[in-house]
Structure formats: C-alpha cells, structure tokens
Write a structure and sequence with these properties.
With 574 residues, this protein is of the alpha/beta class. Helix content is 45%, strand content 15%. It has 22 helices and 15 strands.
C-alpha cells in the first residue's frame, strides 16, 4: 500500500463520514506496529469507535492496545477534555472568587467554544511533538468526518491570528485565558501540518460520486489552510464477479462510473483501491486482512438469532404524511445515507401535497437544489454564510448605538472563531421554529458534530430558564425538540455492527436530553436480496446480528434495500 510507503511521523486519515476512515486508520496502525514501529493511534472524532474496533476501553488517556504489541490508543473525548480544561482554569482562582463570580466564570467555560478549544489543545499538543508522543515512531490520526476535521485543521491559524489581533469579549473570557500561553504550541502545530516531511494527509473515500466530490472539495479546503493532501484511498471497492451476478454487477457498474469520472483535484494524488470485504472490520484479524491483496477472514458463526422482517420505508412515509407540519430530523453516523433518506422523505411529503423545507446542518452535504419547486424549498445552514449573516446582524443592531471606536471593538470581537458556533446555533433555532407551519426535513451532520449542536441547544435552554422570572412561560429550541408532536427524530444506519452500535449510543444520548427517537431506518440492506455472489452472500449473513439489534431497540423501523437499479425516492402509499 503506497500510502504507507516512506511514511513521515504523522499521518492523517480524513474524508466524508462512513467511508471507512476508522477501519483504514486502525489497519494502518496495526500494519506499522507489525513492522516493529512504535505507534500511537489517535481519534479526534467526537463519536470515536476505535475502542470498539479493538474490543477494549481506550478513552482520553494513552492506553496500550492489548492485542497489538507496540500500539497505543487515545480517543480525544470533547466533554472530558472540556471538563479537565475547566478544572485547570478554575483551580488557581477558585479560592479567591465569591460564589457569584465563580458561577459566572464557570458558565463562561461551559459553552461549545470551550469544548472546541479543549479538544483542539489536545490535538495541537500531539502535533507539536510534546512529551506525550516523543517515544513513538508514528502518530496515526483517525479524524472526525470532513467538515469537522477541516474546522480542526484551520483552528491553529485562526486562533493564532485572533491572539495577535484581539482578545475577544466576555463570551470568550474563559477560553481566552488559556490561549496566550499556547501561542508557541499553535505555531509549531501549524508548521507540522504544512510540512509533508512531517505530516502526510490521506483522503479516504468510497467509489461513489458524492464521496469523491467531497474528497475533491476537501483538497481545496485543505489547500486554503496550508495543508496539501497527497494520497487517496478508495475503500470497499466491489471486485469483479466472474459469474456476473446481477446485483454485484450493478454495484460494480455504479462504482466504475464514479471512478472513471474522477474530479480533477484527485487525479494527481497517489491512489490505492481497497477491495470490499465480507466481514465487519472489528478485531485484529479483520484489520490485518483489510490491507492484504485478496484475503478475507471467515465470517463469524451465526448466533442463532433470526432477524425479523423490517417493513419497507413507505410505512414510515405514510405515517408521517398523516400530519401537515413538523420537524423531521435524520440523524446518525456519517455515510449511512442521511442525505438520501432526508431527500426521499421530503419528496414523499411533497407528493402527499405538503409544503416542505429540506435543509442540512452538515457542512459536507450536497442537497440537490434542482429539486426545488413551489412546494419544496431546499437550503443549507452553511457555517460561513451563517457567520457572515450573524456578524452583519449584530453590527446593524448592537453596533448601531456605538461610536466608531466601539464599532471597531465589536467587529474585532466578532472575528473570534467561536462566533461561528453561536451563528450556526441561531440559524438552526430558526429552522426548528419554522416547523410550526410546514414540514421541515433536516439532514444533520454526522453524530459527533450534531451532538455538539444539541449540547449548545441544551446550554441555551438552561440559560433562558435561569434568567426567567418564576411563572413566566417560554419555549426554547430544546423544548420543541423534546415535543414528539413537533419533532420526529429518525436514526439512519446501515446493517453493520459499528454503525448500529453508534446509533444505539446516539439514541441513549438523545434520551438523556429528553428526546425519544421516533424511528430507525436501515439503509442499503442486502437481507432478502436475490444474489448468488459469494461476497454479498457473506455480507448478507453478517447483517443478521445488527438487524436483530435494531428490532430490539427501535420504537418503529423500516429498511431501504439495495437494488439493481439506483434507489428512487419512495412514494407515499395511497
């Protein structure tokens, strides 16, 4: 595998959600350790599954991987990192503040901005060649899906410029207190990212048009951040079938079309193709086979469970169409088909005569705007546009009463990187409220990024509740998300162990916030498909356990099967 040849000290694996970054990163780490190298495998994904892949707890501290000599793991947990960051900041001043002042500072350190900076500090410490990594030959980064990772890679430059240009307003008092002392660390991290002799960035994609377009866009965005992608790994490519099985042939034909028409940004990259395997990439034997030329380990024996039959998606669509408005949120792991599912639902609601707004909070999503019509509005919550609109709105309102010096100071405060978090939350809140009058179908960002948005929603609710006089009636975005008559959360997944496990965690996280998922949709199922291809038959058998797990925990469920034809939007039964 050429993406591992002459490897520098750091290697990043990034790409659209669901393309197999974790599998490829873990397999690369196992391979390097097998060569006798000392390797640290780091996950920067808020929804990391590295521990599950190796069958052990890892967490926010360096942990030896028991099954692989020479390999250690680390999962940067945003919430734990933020808690430790708050404690480090508060410890020196706790005894000198009144209870009211301490509560105020603690509140300043409880927002999404602090969570981002805390995770970012751990990330830059690893890049800056600190004591944590000095004993390792390689540091392998399994990153969050593309949009979140681009944000992380841009932060060293953004915060360095912000330190140079201004100190921020009171909303940044907590985070800013620790930034100045980190200036040299940020500078070294930025230099390491931009130096191909120190850092290699590998894009991971599937042989699908959307994933390849996203990879091409990532090349451009990385270049803007001063980082050059040099390698491309196309994961899970369907091998040729000598028996010409119709389903296998159809899948391979789609992939061939996508790979034949590569975006120009990808043409010059060193490219590898990894064949589709018949088993989930869980455990060292499976990982060891992933980078091998042709081998596939034997499938796990059947458990004896017989998966029930999931109904077709039209049953869910029919139930949704019985209402005339509401928010439908498609949530889940990246790459499971949330955008396709959200589009299918929106078109079905339009066909049922409903007014619909189809939107996305995913920076990496590409909704088909050509679908727009009199009854269908298509939009996206673009972080850059939302931030620009928010800055303009604040300058036109809060800034209107200020003199030139005050307006200059306000404009400087609004250049803080954490302004984006506030802007995106406000845009999200407006869309949530819009669902009182029409259907709003929302395609969300991959799980970890979405949960950070949910966290901001909860923080806002708590702040409003704290400042309202007793007996005052109010409604917050969180209260609308908790109202099953207003919001229906649909968890989208695929019939594989890791995505279903992550979907289960997502459901648990949502329920802790008082949000009960309305349905699960399992996308691209092979169960029941008519195929004789040995690889697809093996994957059919592997669907047994995750499909059973879905049935056991979903309030209602449905499936979208693989077909020999491209999946068309479903229609609501009459």
């Amino acid at each position: 595998m050429r993406f591992l040849d002459h490897l520098p000290r750091h290697v990043f694996f990034t790409g659209k959600g669901g393309v197999g970054k974790t599998s490829v990163a873990c397999a690369a780490a196992v391979h390097l350790a097998g060569l006798g190298r000392r390797v640290l495998l780091v996950s920067t994904d808020p929804a990391s599954n590295v521990g599950h892949v190796f069958g052990q707890e890892i967490g926010n501290s360096v942990t030896p991987i028991a099954a692989v000599a020479g390999l250690d793991g680390l999962e940067i947990d945003p919430e734990q990192a933020a808690a430790e960051y708050r404690e480090r900041t508060l410890r020196p001043i706790r005894d000198y503040l009144s209870a009211a002042d301490l509560a105020s500072v603690t509140e300043q350190l409880s927002g999404a901005c602090t969570t981002e900076i805390a995770s970012f500090n751990e990330f830059t410490d690893l890049l800056a060649d600190t004591e944590t990594t000095c004993d390792y030959d390689h540091v392998v980064f399994d990153t969050a899906p593309t949009g979140h990772t681009i944000r992380l890679l841009k932060l060293p430059g953004e915060w360095t410029r912000f330190i140079d240009d201004g100190r921020g307003d009171t909303s940044c008092l907590g985070p800013m207190s620790g930034l100045e002392k980190s200036r040299s660390t940020y500078g070294r991290a930025l230099a390491a990212l931009a130096d191909p002799g120190i850092t290699r960035l590998v894009l991971v994609a599937r042989a699908q048009q959307g994933a390849l377009i996203e990879a091409a866009r990532t090349v451009d965005e990385l270049a803007e951040a001063g980082v050059a992608a040099t390698h491309l790994v196309v994961n899970g490519v369907m091998p040729a079938d000598p028996d010409h099985d119709p389903l296998a042939e159809a899948i391979r034909a789609r992939e061939t079309r996508a790979l034949t028409d590569l975006p120009p940004q990808l043409v010059g990259l060193v490219t590898e193709r990894i064949p589709l395997r018949g088993v989930d990439m869980v455990g060292v034997p499976a990982l060891a086979c992933l980078l091998a030329p042709t081998s596939t380990p034997a499938a796990a024996p059947a458990t004896g469970d017989t998966p029930g039959s999931l109904p077709a998606i039209d049953t869910v669509l029919s139930e949704l169409a019985s209402q005339d408005h509401g928010l439908v949120m498609c949530m889940g792991k990246g790459g499971v088909g949330k955008t396709t599912t959200a589009t299918m639902i929106a078109l079905a609601m339009v066909a049922a005569g409903r007014d619909v707004h189809l939107t996305t909070t995913d920076p990496a999503a590409h909704l088909d705007r050509s679908l727009a019509s009199d009854r269908l509005r298509v939009s996206s919550i673009d972080p850059e546009q939302a931030t620009a609109d928010y800055r303009a709105r604040v300058m036109a309102t809060k800034g209107a009463a200020l003199d030139d010096l005050g307006r200059a100071a306000l404009a400087e405060d609004l250049r803080s990187p954490c302004t984006e978090e506030v802007a995106v939350f406000q845009a999200f809140s407006q869309v949530v409220a819009e669902a009182r009058h029409r259907f709003v179908v929302m395609d969300t960002a991959p799980t970890g990024h979405t949960l950070l948005l949910m966290d901001a929603t909860g923080s806002y609710h708590n702040e409003i509740a704290r400042n309202m006089a007793a007996g005052t009636r109010f409604t917050t975005p969180l209260m609308r998300l908790q109202d099953p008559d207003h919001t229906k959360v649909i968890i989208v997944t695929v019939a594989e162990t890791t995505p279903v496990l992550e979907a289960s965690r997502l459901q648990a996280d949502l329920e802790r916030a008082g949000i009960r998922p309305w349905a699960w949709i399992v996308n691209q199922t092979l169960s029941g498909a008519d195929t004789g291809n040995p690889l697809l038959v093996q994957r059919q058998a592997a669907e047994q356990r995750p499909m059973t797990a879905v049935l056991r925990q979903a309030e209602r469920s449905a499936q979208i099967p693989w077909t020999t034809d491209p999946i068309a939007p479903a229609e609501v039964p009459s």
